[in-house]
Amino acid sequence: MIKYHVCKDQTITSIRVSGHANYKKHGEDIVCAAVSTATILSANLLERMGFKGDYTVSIDEGFFHLEVLKSNPYLEQILINLEETLKTLELQYPKYIKHQKEG
Q1: Confidence band, pLDDT 50/70/90 cuts, at residue 102
Q2: CATH number of the domain bearing residue 84
Q3: Are 21 and 96 contacting, i.e. CB atoms less than 8 angstroms apart?
Q4: Rounded distance, CA 17 to CA 41, Å?
């Protein structure tokens, strides 16, 4: 199962995504592919827009962690979009992706 956690203060301070959906075998798992695409697209867009020093990101097999160092309205909107994408995927595939709540 893929688990994701979004930390917020006034704005999003970090997003962590980990695990594998196991929806289908490796190479055919559309849930993993969708989550990977959303996270990598978001990280690439932040870099392309010149926000490289405003966040840190770690990406590995089955793992994504982005931490905001300096928020701004554009960066925040990109992260809100990522969060909404993950929520939409969770609604479509509730057995394979879950929001990890605090506590």
Answers
A1: low
A2: 3.30.70.1490
A3: yes
A4: 14
Domain membership of residue 100 (yes or no) is: no
Decide if 102 is inside a domain: no
What global pTM score does this model have? 0.94
- Confidence check: pLDDT of 103 > 80: no
101 is a domain residue: no
